[in-house]
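DM from R.C. (forwarded with permission)

"hey, sorry to bug you on a friday — could you get me a structure for this? deadline for the figure draft is monday and I only need the backbone to look sensible"
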Amino acid sequence: MTYKQIKNLKQKEFKRLCGVNPKLFDEMAEVLKQELPKPRQRGGQPKLSVEDQLLIALQYWREYRTYFHISKSWGIHESTVCRIVHRVENKLIKSRKFSLPGRKALTSPNVEWEAIIIDAGESPIERPKKNSEIFIAEKRNDTL
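My reply, with the result:
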């Protein structure tokens, strides 16, 4: 699914598919257009646009799909997907516009945390008692 096919989706659907808002996607694409080389044609077929390359990287990060599966979806080689993801990732990191807050920002006293903790550690497990007669009889029958 190329960027041309999804660019007209509603904002909520676009975010569900890509993991980012269309506005943020456009900002990322602008940064990449400045950093990445222009798409060229090789062998009569056009290369992927910058938006398509960003979409491939977002699919990799969001869906945890392998390079192999993404390559089959896009009709390109697995190593090409790997190069695209690494190139896009490095350029976005280099721009410093899309970084997560650091540890100091998260541990500052101005941050209010809200968490729900679920204790699922203690749950009964049904297993046969080691001293039961059935267990001992079965154990003796297996040794014969």
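R.C.: lifesaver. The chain is about 55% helix and 5% strand.
me: no worries. The CA atoms of residues 121 and 127 lie 17 Å apart.
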